[in-house]
Amino acid sequence: MLGWFDANLVSILNGFAIGSLLFILAVGLSIVFGMMDVLNLAHGAFFLIGSYLAVTFVAGESWGGFLTALGVAALIGLLAGGALSGLTEPLARRPILDQALLTLGISLIVAEVLSIIYGNDVFSVPPPPGLAESIDVAGRAYPAYRLMLIAVGLVLALVVWLVVEKTSIGALVRASVADREMVSAMGVDNRKVKFAVLGVGSLLATVAGVLAAPVYGARPGLDETILLLALVVIVIGGRGSVRGALVGALVIGQVESLGRALVPDLASFILFGTLALVLIVRPRGLFAGKVAHS
């Protein structure tokens, strides 16, 4: 067993790095879907915006360009989430398919605009200075940037959990989910709560796109691939659960990495086989959170 871990150490670490990226992307989508009952199929397109922002601002190995891309991505994510909140508000009491069609349309428009601006080329983005080198991990050379992604994902998981579970802001969001009418009667505008949650969720998507650029680059179609993985993470972890998003992301990260390293021809079957197995055992996901009711 130890020999197997040693032989596949790089793939296992890659799984944690991919899982961290998927968590940063999926936790926002999970909270928006699970708590606000908004199925945002434009989430992958927001991720792609972040990736192309990294292409735009990161010229060579530059902390300045990388941090600028993160800042611009955060701002655009907030604005996009606010706009999405306004667009979906009239559909709040209609079937969720209406929201899905609206956000899918937004996704297609965003992807087409990005394709017009950047073309259909595949772009690569270098890591910031100091993170482009490899570090010795148990005798294996491993990229420092990917180790940083693992750390960022774990820290963000702790921060989001603390905000949602231990602060007054999180309590307000949970109260809005449990009983919107009561919260509204107390003078709280539920639309502002929805605006804030969608804004933060979209911000996480665009920021994840910037962070993922040195790993995945930027290319047409990446939004669809990453959205599919994020949805699988949510279904496995349970919508509305921060813990579920983390566990689901780490599971899918390992399945993706080890599957493609050991049995590349069966990687997709293993991915969806894992999804099917979880759904058979836990139909609502491993750690299903509270779900909004209109």
TrEMBL record:
<keyword id="KW-1133">Transmembrane helix</keyword>
<feature type="transmembrane region" description="Helical">
    <location>
        <begin position="66"/>
        <end position="88"/>
    </location>
</feature>
<dbReference type="InterPro" id="IPR001851">
    <property type="entry name" value="ABC_transp_permease"/>
</dbReference>
<feature type="transmembrane region" description="Helical">
    <location>
        <begin position="100"/>
        <end position="119"/>
    </location>
</feature>
<dbReference type="GO" id="GO:0006865">
    <property type="term" value="P:amino acid transport"/>
</dbReference>
<keyword id="KW-0472">Membrane</keyword>
<feature type="transmembrane region" description="Helical">
    <location>
        <begin position="41"/>
        <end position="60"/>
    </location>
</feature>
<keyword id="KW-0813">Transport</keyword>
<feature type="transmembrane region" description="Helical">
    <location>
        <begin position="12"/>
        <end position="34"/>
    </location>
</feature>
<keyword id="KW-1003">Cell membrane</keyword>
<keyword id="KW-0029">Amino-acid transport</keyword>
<comment type="similarity">
    <text>Belongs to the binding-protein-dependent transport system permease family. LivHM subfamily.</text>
</comment>
<feature type="transmembrane region" description="Helical">
    <location>
        <begin position="195"/>
        <end position="216"/>
    </location>
</feature>
<dbReference type="InterPro" id="IPR052157">
    <property type="entry name" value="BCAA_transport_permease"/>
</dbReference>
<keyword id="KW-0812">Transmembrane</keyword>
<protein>
    <submittedName>
        <fullName>Branched-chain amino acid transport system permease protein</fullName>
    </submittedName>
</protein>
<feature type="transmembrane region" description="Helical">
    <location>
        <begin position="228"/>
        <end position="250"/>
    </location>
</feature>
<feature type="transmembrane region" description="Helical">
    <location>
        <begin position="144"/>
        <end position="164"/>
    </location>
</feature>
<dbReference type="GO" id="GO:0022857">
    <property type="term" value="F:transmembrane transporter activity"/>
</dbReference>
<dbReference type="Pfam" id="PF02653">
    <property type="entry name" value="BPD_transp_2"/>
</dbReference>
<feature type="transmembrane region" description="Helical">
    <location>
        <begin position="262"/>
        <end position="281"/>
    </location>
</feature>
<dbReference type="GO" id="GO:0005886">
    <property type="term" value="C:plasma membrane"/>
</dbReference>
